[in-house]
Amino acid sequence: DTSPDLYQSVKMFSAFSIGFNVFVYLNTIGLYTIMMFMIRNGLLQTSDAAPQGTLERQAIIKYDADLFKDDEECCICMGEFDDKDEIRRSRELALHHADFHARATAAATLGAEEGFRSAARDFIAGLAAVITSQAEQREAGQQQQQHWSNSGQCVTTYPGSKPGAAVQVAPGQLKRQQHERSFLKQLRELLQGLPPAQRRDFIAQRLSQAQRVSLEQWILAERAGPMQGASKQGRPFKTGIHCPGLSQRSLCCWRGKRGRVGYRPIMHLFGSFYAQAAFTFDLSSAVAALGTLLTMRTLCQALGGTCTQKQGGDQEVVATLRAAVHDALAMKRPGPIGHRFYFKTRMRMAHGYEISTPSRSDVDTALGEWLHLLRTKAGGARAPK
């Protein structure tokens, strides 16, 4: 009777307290979820790292143990693979493009110069590794082992060796090597037919250390290709690829009067030959175009160095650069927005004078003008005073 409004006050306080606690709890959980999402995705949404429909556009291939070089069961669920299962294989270069696009876009958005440089360095290093591996495989395929009989003996030549410096292999030794390879092949086929647990026990208990090493070396040689060991004994492939001092200045940022920011990435490819992307106001599109330009530069350096080593003519250099540009355009990161690229030549003809050709969308026309200026400069032409 002395406190008629006591229950009403307690009821209001309880309702307010419960509502406030629910509000704080939901916001705490939401903040934690957002922070974890940003950390896992590098301050980007998943759709920015991989465009919609990327998985559906990958080629569907049939599972083959020799192709994947793995056990015939899933390492997560321990279930056996079936012929009806779909396995989608992604290109390694596409992964490098996606990683660079996500990291460089985030770094440019936050103004992190060192993060942008690190993304570019890792991207170029990944491209160089892929290009070098492909070049080694091509070189090994072109310089295959040659066997011929000479006076009852088998003469074997290895790539990179001097003419006449062939290794003499006796017929008996060659027969033993062939028998050993046949035995290792049969042993691998038998081991592949065993379950994984029994396979490991058999290798650990029944095979000696020397046999395990021989089997491992033979399997690695088979995976790398028949000429992997021979290519290592010969001269290594050198591309001359190096990481340029790339920074956010390569995006060629332009600020308009109303505060809008535009980008027109440009990149020096080879010699006095340059490439630039079309102007855009979208930072993500500009970074993707810069990734394609970096791919052009890396391929031009690799193939251009090969042309220099071969001491080919101007036409061969032009053909090599044309192939590098077309390959880079074919490797560019897929996306809903297409990028246009232009090519031009900037060359210093004399002290204080520089010639620049118009920007061409056709790479063949631009390379023709580049070659013409090279020959003009080699002929001793001088700029007018």
From TrEMBL:
Residues that span the membrane, as ranges: 12-34
Superkingdom of the organism of origin: Eukaryota
Record protein name field: Uncharacterized protein
Alphabetical keyword list: Membrane, Transmembrane, Transmembrane helix
